Structure formats: structure tokens, C-alpha cells
């Protein structure tokens, strides 16, 4: 479970901002989970709302970057590669300063605090603390220019891994690459249990849907597709293959590039997807590209959603409302909110500018599940609805639209008048 996330000096985020999944109120009717060895509970869903360009997606991007650094920095980033962080660029001083990321989470029943500080060249700091018995225990602390300080509880080849460390790789990433058994559960939380759905990985998410359907006969995926009332009866996938001689040549070339043997059978030029629709007593198959954008979006989300619900993972979705009707978006939130459909305590973190989700009876977002973003002097501020006194959730949408909580766009009527003058000339 994800408990808290903090970020500073990344994209439009200048000063440190926090997103917390710790429940501020008691909720007996949604799928909250107890945080081990604390009095706290964690929420099953968090929604970030705000106008366009307020930084909603940058909060998601920051979390995705932190995940990527853990998973990829040691094995996939080359020694001289720059660290692909994006500092705040509207302040010349801040742009040259490092970025900072912190994540508090629970993996295999143990609460952890992990974080790092980096510029575009190297990691300045990195730390990991565990709370196996409720009290903080240091696993390691790394600071640029000094040896890593290890806690007494961290065993294994600690020093050997430190010698293999590069300035542009994280110790946690290097430890996992070298099979450090004690740190693998922490690494696996990032690699396997923190899922991020953005437009750029729609293809891999579609492949996840395919894998569930073909390898596991996951009827829950088909049920989810049919539940959306998109007219989908079934889905069929097929790989587009090259001619054998062309596949062999391409496999040889890729083997040299990747440094490992690639079989011609692994070469695919893409995937054909056909969606079956039942009209009366007849079936019709349509290629994926002829389906509505809503159907395509739902199909690419179906696999990750079912996997997250089945394994209790954290699913982070950028622009949940993009190409989805707000009723369908609210039903997706409901899957994570309801204890019946979320028995394993999965979490959904999403951003949206669909204000109707705030007042939708299906999503049933509580006040501590609602966060807002807005710009102040060009920098993103992220704040919870609990900063305001709200008697009930029923009128949150109306108050939000009226500007009661901020985080709404400002429309300059003088500019509209100027446009009218220009177009009438």
C-alpha cells in the first residue's frame, strides 16, 4: 500500500508537495486497510482535481519517475547517461538545485520510508528506513562524498554492492540487480506492485489485458469489458509476423544490439486486435482502430485494473476521465472503493478535471480522498479538501465549481473582448 508521496523541484512542482493516502476520517463502508503497527488506515482511492496546466499530471509523472529510477537506474541507464529528471525551470536558482522524492509504503507487511535527492548528473542522497516492529530502523543512508551508512539489521553483500555503485544509479536498484534478498521486497514494491498507466504505455497495458485473457483465461477481464456497456462480447489478439527470412535477419541485428540471443519467433511487427460485437443473434468483428476511443481506453485499462484488484497493487492513472464517459470513470473508482470488489486492498490514484466525480454517488469519494492542484507564481500547489470545512460530500462539486476551494481556471473577460475585436476587423 502507498501511504505518502512527497516531491520537490520536479516539473511544475517547485516547493515540496505531499500526497497522502492516510485516512483523516473513519470509513467503515469503503475498502480501507489498517497500516501495520499503527493506529492509521489507508484509503483505497485518491483523486487529484484541478484545471488544465495546474500540475495534476506532474504529480503522477513525479511518482512515475521515482519508480523508473528505482527499476532502471542501475541496469538500464548507461554510466554517462544524464538522470532524466525535470527541474522547475521558472526559477533560475531552483533549476540548478537538486530534486527530492520521498515515498512511504508497506511491502510484505512492513512499513518503509524511502527517498532520494538527485540532480541531472548524480544522486546526492538516498535513504531507506524500515518499521518492522513499529520503531524506525535504518537500513541504509547514502550521502554524496561519504561511505554509505548501513544499519545493523541489513545483512548481505552490502559493501560489494556499494563498490559497484555508479553516481547515476540508486543503491536500491544496484542491490536488486545483484540479488540482495533482504532488499528485494522493497525493490519489488516499485517494480511489480506500483503500476502507472499513462498514454505512453497504452500498448504494454493492452498486452497485459491480452496476457490475462490468453494465458489465464481471466473471465473477469471480459466481465469488466461487458460491464462497461460498450457492446463488447469478446476480444481476439493476433501478432503480425514478418517473413521467416526477414525475421531471422532482424533477430540477428537485435541480438547484437541487446547483447543477448533473440529468437526469430520473438519478432513481431505489432498486434492486431479484433473486438467482437453481438447484434441480435449475429456476431460482428471490428478491428481495434475502428472502435471508439472510450472502448480502446477501457480495453487497455482492463488488464491492469483486474491485476491490481487481484493482487492488492497500487494503480496510478493519469487523466482517468480522458476518453471515458464520467459514468464509466466513476464505476472504475467504485471497483476500488467497494470492499466486495476490492478484497485485497488495492489502491487507485488518479487525476482528473471531471468535476462530476466529486459529486457522483457511484464513486463516493470522501473528503480525505479528494486533492486539488493549482498554480501559484507558476508553481504547483497540491492540497487536500480536508483543508476546508465540509459538512457533507453532497455539495462538494457545487462548491468546487463556484471556486470555494480554488483550483479552478480563471477566465479573463477582457481577453475575450479583445478576441472579439480582432475577429470582427
Automatic annotation (TrEMBL):
GO molecular function, one term: ATP binding
Species per Swiss-Prot/TrEMBL record: Wenjunlia vitaminophila
ATPase AAA-type core domain location: 47-358
InterPro entries xref list: ATPase_AAA_core, P-loop_NTPase
Protein name as annotated: ATPase AAA-type core domain-containing protein
Domain of life the protein comes from: Bacteria
Amino acid at each position: 500500500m502507498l501511504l505518502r508521496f512527497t516531491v520537490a523541484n520536479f516539473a511544475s512542482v517547485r516547493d515540496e508537495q505531499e500526497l497522502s493516502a492516510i485516512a483523516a476520517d473513519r470509513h467503515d463502508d469503503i475498502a480501507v486497510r489498517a497500516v501495520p503497527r499503527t493506529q492509521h488506515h489507508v484509503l483505497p482511492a485518491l483523486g487529484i482535481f484541478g484545471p488544465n496546466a495546474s500540475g495534476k499530471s506532474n504529480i503522477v509523472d513525479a511518482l512515475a519517475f521515482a519508480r523508473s529510477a528505482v527499476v532502471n537506474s542501475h541496469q538500464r541507464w548507461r554510466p554517462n547517461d544524464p538522470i532524466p529528471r525535470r527541474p522547475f525551470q521558472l526559477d533560475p536558482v531552483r533549476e540548478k538545485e537538486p530534486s527530492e522524492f520521498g515515498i512511504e509504503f508497506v511491502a510484505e507487511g512492513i512499513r518503509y520510508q524511502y527517498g532520494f535527492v538527485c540532480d541531472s548528473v548524480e544522486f546526492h542522497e538516498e535513504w531507506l528506513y524500515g518499521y518492522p516492529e513499529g520503531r524506525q530502523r535504518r537500513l541504509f543512508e547514502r550521502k554524496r562524498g561519504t561511505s554509505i551508512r548501513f544499519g545493523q539489521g541489513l545483512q548481505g553483500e552490502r559493501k560489494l554492492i556499494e563498490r559497484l555503485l555508479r553516481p547515476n544509479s540508486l543503491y536500491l536498484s544496484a542491490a536488486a540487480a545483484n540479488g540482495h534478498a533482504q532488499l528485494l521486497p522493497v525493490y519489488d514494491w516499485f517494480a511489480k506492485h506500483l503500476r502507472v498507466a499513462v498514454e505512453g504505455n497504452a500498448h504494454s497495458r493492452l498486452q497485459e489485458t491480452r496476457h490475462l485473457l490468453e494465458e489465464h483465461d481471466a473471465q473477469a477481464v471480459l466481465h469488466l469489458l461487458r460491464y462497461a456497456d460498450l457492446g463488447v462480447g469478446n476480444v481476439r489478439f493476433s501478432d503480425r509476423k514478418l517473413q521467416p527470412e526477414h525475421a531471422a535477419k532482424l533477430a540477428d541485428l537485435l541480438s547484437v544490439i541487446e547483447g543477448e540471443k533473440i529468437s526469430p519467433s520473438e519478432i513481431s511487427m505489432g498486434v492486431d486486435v479484433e473486438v467482437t460485437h453481438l447484434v441480435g443473434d449475429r456476431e460482428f468483428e471490428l478491428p481495434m482502430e475502428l472502435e471508439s476511443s472510450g472502448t480502446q481506453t477501457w480495453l487497455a485499462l482492463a488488464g491492469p485494473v483486474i491485476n491490481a484488484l487481484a493482487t492488492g497493487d497500487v494503480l496510478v492513472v493519469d487523466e482517468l476521465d480522458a476518453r471515458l464517459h464520467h459514468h464509466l470513470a466513476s464505476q472504475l473508482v467504485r471497483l476500488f472503493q467497494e470492499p466486495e470488489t476490492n478484497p485485497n486492498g488495492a489502491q487507485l490514484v488518479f487525476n482528473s478535471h471531471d468535476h462530476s466525480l466529486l459529486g457522483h454517488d457511484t464513486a463516493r469519494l470522501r473528503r480525505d480522498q479528494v486533492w486539488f492542484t493549482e498554480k501559484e507564481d507558476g508553481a504547483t500547489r497540491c492540497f487536500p479538501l480536508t483543508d476546508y470545512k465540509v459538512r457533507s460530500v453532497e455539495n462538494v462539486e457545487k462548491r468546487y465549481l463556484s471556486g470555494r476551494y480554488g483550483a479552478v481556471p480563471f477566465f479573463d473577460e477582457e481577453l475575450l473582448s479583445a478576441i472579439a475585436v480582432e475577429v470582427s476587423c
